[in-house]
């Protein structure tokens, strides 16, 4: 693995840093307090090309490799995890699967709008009773002539309130387990689809998270994406790359925690000396720094495997597991460096900790990542 960034990678990282410092950093506290990022950020993300990374230029994407994608995702995570998640979901869990699995007509219909930020995507897998084990999901799509009629409920759907299209997973036949599940591209303005915003999240307050209720939602058969019965594989392949992007976002959180802790420790004095001069404060900072480096290297390794066309799913679970736990530790250590000020939202570290916490839960909890890694090593499924 070559750890030196190419000229293109260095340039895209610089572009992302500048974008974050200009468009995101000045607004972070206000967006968090308002419980909504400015929706105009979606169009700006499209214009700068971040919603089209790794997507073919013929469909309006900005191309590039997965390594560049993780560099941008890290920067967005450094700036605001709410914005990072908007991109990870719309690009990573919707546009990329469309590019990989959809037919030509679906690609031409959805991808240019999604990459431009004119439309936003959401990923509807989790249900109220089926989170870690989505293979048991109960949403049903029943064939009726040239249509499917869909009934069911999805929960915790990122971008749910804002999205124009949901990549929806529903059961199309009675085969138990994952083989009866199919994927659909459902416009969110389809009659019968209701979206209820979920309020009161611990973190990621700038993002809209929604419950989607589908009551006799009628879509044409052309809304089916990929072969009938292949939906679960589509979801799993999307999530494998999605875990890489969550890991990269976590590196960004940990880096932001490090920058904040070092900066504050250098300014704050107690007992007549800079707190940076105390060994116990340096311990907090060095623990964060080691977590940043380790999480970044694991994440880069996944991107490198993806770009070389090698198996990466287990490496993605390792990176997501480590980086998410590291981001929580790093943000918590940084908060300790800030003392009481860390508990107030004028300072950045409290939000980093609130945002980091969900990273160990979504796209598969830490326990689920451990079981994925354990299954790969032992050949025994312990779910
Ligand atoms: P398993 O036996 O592992 O696989 C079932 C079928 O899927 C195929 N498959 C893949 N296909 C392509 N690419 C991949 N990477 C694939 N991985 C698996 C597999 O070959 C098989 O197909 P077939 O035809 O051979 O039978 O299925 P399992 O039921 O044992 O899976 C267990 C487990 C725990 C791994 C899975 O259920 C799981 O991942 N659970 C966690 C659920 C989860 O992660 N949910 C995330 C929801 S989305 C979200 O949280 C977004 S957060 C917002 C943000 O990111 O910002
Ligand atoms: P459960 O599956 O009920 O798990 C509860 C506990 O049991 C956890 O500690 C878990 O690790 C443990 N557990 C479960 N099974 C096992 C086992 N076999 N062995 C050991 N321990 C186990 N989903 C989407 O589809 N799309 C989205 O866009 C999306 N965005 C989200 C955004 C937010 C803010 C949140 C909070 C969630 C989001 N999710 C989304 C859902 C998320 O993926 C699920 O919450 C997650 O997969 C866990 O499912 P659950 O909440 O039902 O927990």
What ranges have pLDDT less than 50 throughout 5 or more consecutive residues?
none
Spatial ordering of strands, largest sheet: 1-4-5-8
Return the structural class. alpha+beta
Please give the alpha-carbon distance between the first and last residues.
32 Å
Strand-helix topology:
Layout: H1 7-24, H2 28-34, H3 40-47, H4 66-79, H5 81-101, H6 104-116, E1 121-124, E2 140-144, E3 147-158, E4 165-171, E5 181-187, E6 193-197, E7 209-220, E8 224-225, H7 231-267, E9 269-270, E10 273-274, H8 279-307, H9 313-338, H10 349-357, H11 366-378
Parallel strand pairs: 1-4
Antiparallel strand pairs: 2-3, 3-7, 4-5, 5-8, 6-7, 9-10
Helix pairs in contact: 1-4, 4-5, 4-7, 4-8, 5-6, 5-7, 7-8, 7-9, 7-10, 8-9, 9-10, 9-11
Bound molecules: 3-thiaglutaryl-CoA and flavin-adenine dinucleotide (FAD).
Descriptors:
FAD, binds flavin-adenine dinucleotide, 383 residues, single chain, four-stranded antiparallel beta sheet, Acyl-CoA_Oxase/DH_mid-dom_sf, alpha+beta, flavoprotein, oxidoreductase, binds 3-thiaglutaryl-CoA
What does this molecule look like?
This protein is α+β, with helices and mostly antiparallel strands. Helix content is 51%, strand content 15%. It has a 4-stranded mixed beta sheet with strand order 1-4-5-8. The chain has a 4-stranded antiparallel beta sheet with strand order 2-3-7-6, with helices on one face. The chain has a two-stranded antiparallel ribbon with strand order 9-10. The two termini are 32 Å apart. The mean pLDDT is 97. 3-thiaglutaryl-CoA binds at residues 85, 88-89, 123, 125-126, 132-135, 158, 178, 232-233, 236-237, 239-240, 242, 246, 313, 362-364, 368, 372, 381, 383. Belongs to the acyl-CoA dehydrogenase family. This is Acyl-CoA dehydrogenase family protein. InterPro entries: Acyl-CoA_DH_CS, Acyl-CoA_Oxase/DH_mid-dom, Acyl-CoA_Oxase/DH_mid-dom_sf, AcylCo_DH-like_C, AcylCo_DH/oxidase_C, AcylCoA_DH/ox_N, AcylCoA_DH/ox_N_sf, AcylCoA_DH/oxidase_NM_dom_sf. Residues 229-377 form the Acyl-CoA dehydrogenase/oxidase C-terminal domain. Keywords: FAD, Flavoprotein, Oxidoreductase.
């Amino acid at each position: 693995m070559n750890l030196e960034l190419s000229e293109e990678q260095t340039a895209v990282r610089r572009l992302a840093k500048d974008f974050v410092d200009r468009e995101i950093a000045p607004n972070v506290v206000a967006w968090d307090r308002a419980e909504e990022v400015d929706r105009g950020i979606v169009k700006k993300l499209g214009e700068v090309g971040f919603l089209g990374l790794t997507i073919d230029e013929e469909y309006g994407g900005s191309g590039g490799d997965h390594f560049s994608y993780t560099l941008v995702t890290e920067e967005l995570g450094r700036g605001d995890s709410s914005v990072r998640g908007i991109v990870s979901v719309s690009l990573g869990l919707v546009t990329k699967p469309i590019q990989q699995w959809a037919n030509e007509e679906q690609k031409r219909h959805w991808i240019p709008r999604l990459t431009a930020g004119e439309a936003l995507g959401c990923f509807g897998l989790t249900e109220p009773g089926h989170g870690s084990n989505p293979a048991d999901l109960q949403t049903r799509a029943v064939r009726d002539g040239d249509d499917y009629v869909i009934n069911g409920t999805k929960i915790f759907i990122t971008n749910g309130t804002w999205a124009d299209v949901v990549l929806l997973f529903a059961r199309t036949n009675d085969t138990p387990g994952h083989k009866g599940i199919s994927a659909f591209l459902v416009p969110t303005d389809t009659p019968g689809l209701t979206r209820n915003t979920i309020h009161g999240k611990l973190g990621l307050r700038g993002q809209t998270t929604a419950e989607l209720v589908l009551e006799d939602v009628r879509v044409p058969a052309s809304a089916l994406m990929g072969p009938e019965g292949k939906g679960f594989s589509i979801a799993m392949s999307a999530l494998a790359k999605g875990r890489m992007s969550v890991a990269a976002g976590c590196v960004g959180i940990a880096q932001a925690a490090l920058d904040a802790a070092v900066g504050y420790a250098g300014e704050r004095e107690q007992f007549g000396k800079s707190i940076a001069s105390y060994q116990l404060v340096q311990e907090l900072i060095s623990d964060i720094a080691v977590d940043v480096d380790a999480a970044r290297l694991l994440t880069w390794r996944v991107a490198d495997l993806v770009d070389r066309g090698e198996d990466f799913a287990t490496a993605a679970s390792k990176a997501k597991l480590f980086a998410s736990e590291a981001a929580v530790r790093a943000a918590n250590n940084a908060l300790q460096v800030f003392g009481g000020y860390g508990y107030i939202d004028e300072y950045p570290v409290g939000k980093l900790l609130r945002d980091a916490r969900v990273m160990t839960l979504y796209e598969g909890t830490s326990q689920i990542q451990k079981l994925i890694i354990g299954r790969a090593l032992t050949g025994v499924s312990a779910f």
